[in-house]
Amino acid sequence: MKIAVIQHRIRPTLAEDADALSSGVMHACDEGARVVVCPWVPSIAAADVAQRASMIETFSSCGEGTTLLLAFRTPEPTSSARIKQTPLGPTALMLGDECIMLSSYEAAEAAGARAWVWRPLSESDLQAEAVLEHAIAASASYVGLILVSESTGADPGEIGHGSSAVLYLGDVIAEAFAADDMIMVDIDAPVPAPEPREPLPALPPILEQRLAVHEGRKASFGYLADLS
Predict the structure, then answer these.
(1) Residue 33: strand, helix, or coil
(2) pLDDT category, 228, cuts 50, 70, 90?
């Protein structure tokens, strides 16, 4: 089964973002993708109901039998993984901090998710690198397949720093390199669970610090942490 993960360079306007993302989606569909994962794009997430409907209508020409995973919702500190049925089976959709919260992993596992989609909304290149390393570990601990889809081109402190990739049973099997890129992989479904399951390492300090800031608390490491 062909799976496409899109990495998108943020544009100045909604119209430009929508055109570029539509082009990526159509390319993925032309290549025969059964699942197309799009990143969270700030202008698209902020679009009104009519604008969203117009984009969905444009993307719906992708073709019958293809599941298109768009991201419109706003990240919330108390939210958790959402489950959607896809050709991969039950698929957990995680946004922002959900991607690095153990409670989200446990909820996805309890729901029987066979694959996870991560849109981590990294705020720096260092965060993006740490998220990818944690995704590798999670794909050897909780679920065999993690699809990471991100935007790029943001300033430090703003959302959009790339590191889109496909993680399969503890390995990176495909990774985006260009600012605008499409990763295409061929996956057998259902995806096997990790066996044996590796222990999930502690969250990297830079991600623990991120959670603490978002939750309005001070991070406690128990040792002198290097957050650089």
Answers:
(1) coil
(2) very low
pLDDT band for position 69 (50/70/90)? Answer: very high
Check pLDDT > 70 for residue 224: no
| CA angle (73 as vertex; 105, 209 as ends), nearest 5 | 50
Please compute, for residue 91, the number of CA atoms within 13 A of its CA located in the half-sphere on the CB side.
24
Query: For residue 127, what are the CA distances in angstroms to 17, 88, 130, 134, 200?
Result: 23, 28, 5, 10, 18
What pLDDT, on a 0 to 100 scale, did the predictor assign at position 222? 56
Beta pairing class for 2-9 and 151-152 = parallel
Q: Is the pLDDT of residue 226 over 70?
A: no
The DSSP annotation for 88-140 comes to TEEEEEEEGGGGG-HHHHHHHHHTT-SEEEEE---SSHHHHHHHHHHHHHHHH
pTM of the predicted protein model: 0.93
Query: Dihedral, CA atoms, 141, 144, 149, 155, nearest 10 degrees?
Result: 20
96 half-sphere exposure, CB direction, 13 A CA radius:
19
How many helices (DSSP H) and strands (DSSP E) are in the chain?
6, 11
Would you give the DSSP letter of residue 195? S
- 199's enclosing H/E stretch is none
pLDDT of residue 75: 82
For 23, the 3-state DSSP assignment is helix
Alpha-carbon gap, residue 110 to 122, rounded angstroms: 26
